[in-house]
Predict the structure.
Amino acid sequence: MSAASWVEDLNFNEQGLIPAVIQEFKTQEVLTVCYLNKDALLKSLEEKKVYVFRRSKNKLMLKGETSGHIQTIRKVAIDCANNSIVLQVDQAVAGCHTGYMSCFYREAEDDGGLHVHAERVFDPDEVYKK
């Protein structure tokens, strides 16, 4: 996957970011939504691994850098307005730092509550020992 000319056509927001939906390639499950700046996108395309721009840390980071739960890019899709992307990946272990495969492991209930509908894949206290 090379840094194609389409990257120049993307509409990054005023902070220089573009939202990216990260989706498991085989199951099509949405794992998370993150933001990429141009450097993160170019590095992701070059290495075929997802790099994100961590707004809270103001730096580029490899997704799964701490846990080892790397996301290897299989396919990239761009929306019709050039203002968001989908990265389909092969996910190692799990995509959510809380221990679930997806960050979307809760569903809204009719009573206004949230219900956890998935099982934890790993123990975050073990993976992210402080």
